[in-house]
């Protein structure tokens, strides 16, 4: 994607370390993004509420003065689900939670990082966001969509009749196409009370999910096994 294509995209950087914020801002500006910067967590929600033109992307530091990044991520996702979020973190112990996207973040970057990586991740997240909200150009093609409010998955308009656990598994994997989830990560989404279950439980739910999808699309395999690792959602090329 060219700089011209991204010229209208706005990024809100929420980072309390001035050197990091300036470095990232310089690279993003040089790549055609419009930038805003906030240093304090308590300023984020009021700033977003005051601006009719919301940023396409928020680069959100985990550790902030005032309201922390995890809380802000939840609140932004609840209020403005169309705004993409990339978390910035220096806390390795938080990576699993961010990888699991349990807070609604679209991606995460660990410090220290290359500013070029930030630009590349920002472009990738925005491409996925546009693809998810783009109007239908070829309705005749196979389409899988999620109804979050009704906890339904629709394959070409047909309700797959998923259980709550199956819906959550599908939703997590669809949120990050191509990304491999371990069974442990998927279990964290299936059972938020952290009950102890075997990894075979995940396999059983995945098997049932695949069967329901195959009833509508017998020739398609979109939930794929990765031997020795876990599973991923991989729509057909």
Automatic annotation (TrEMBL):
Domain Response regulatory: 10-126
Domain OmpR/PhoB-type: 136-235
Annotated InterPro entries: CheY-like_superfamily (IPR011006), OmpR/PhoB-type_DNA-bd (IPR001867), Sig_transdc_resp-reg_C-effctor (IPR016032), Sig_transdc_resp-reg_receiver (IPR001789), WalR-like (IPR039420), WH-like_DNA-bd_sf (IPR036388)
Domain of life: Bacteria
Keyword DNA-binding: yes
Regions that span the bilayer: none
Residue positions, PTM 4-aspartylphosphate: 61
Alphabetically ordered keywords of this record: DNA-binding, Phosphoprotein, Transcription, Transcription regulation, Two-component regulatory system
Pfam families: Response_reg, Trans_reg_C
DNA-binding residues: 136-235
Protein name, per record: Transcriptional regulator
Organism: Halomonas salina
